[in-house]
């Protein structure tokens, strides 16, 4: 049973990696990823006077950091192009 679960997880990860490559390979996909990352406050401070707001924003930021790491791991070349596109749109 554990081996079967491991195989399912590997297949799922391969599917996710493929989806990431497709997103990074299209203009619309890159725009979507840039928008998604902008919603996670990865390039700004999340600290606010209210500790609950800070905690909420840090949670969103953690998701963005995890996504950035996955994008880099799956396709670092297109990730670099995505960050360049982000600078152009700033």
What does this entry show, briefly?
With 90 residues, the chain is mainly α.
Uncertain residue segments: none
The H/E string reads HHHH
Hey, roughly how much beta strand do the residues contain? Answer: under 5%
Give the beta-strand count. 0
Net shape = flat
Give the proportion of residues in helices: over 70%
Name the assembly state.
single chain
Query: What is the rounded Rg?
Result: 16 Å
The end-to-end distance, rounded to whole angstroms, is 50 Å
What does the largest sheet look like? none
Task: Please tell me the overall pLDDT.
Answer: 90
Secondary-structure content class: mainly alpha
Number of helices: 4
What do you see in this structure?
With 90 residues, the protein is mainly alpha-helical. It is 81% helix and 0% strand. Helix 3 packs across helix 4 (76-89). The protein is flat and about 50 Å long.
Helices and strands, with pairings:
Blueprint: H1 2-24, H2 27-38, H3 51-74, H4 76-89
Helix pairs in contact: 3-4
Main features:
mainly alpha; 0% strand; 90 residues; 4 helices
């Amino acid at each position: 049973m554990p081996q079967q679960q491991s195989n399912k997880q590997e297949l799922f990860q391969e599917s996710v990696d493929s989806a990431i490559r497709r997103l990074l390979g299209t203009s619309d996909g890159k725009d979507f990823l840039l928008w998604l990352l902008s919603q996670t406050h990865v390039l700004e401070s999340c600290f606010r006077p209210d500790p609950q707001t800070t905690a909420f924003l840090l949670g969103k930021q953690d998701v963005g950091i995890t996504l950035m790491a996955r994008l880099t791991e799956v396709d670092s070349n297109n990730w670099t192009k995505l960050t360049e596109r982000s600078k152009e749109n700033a």
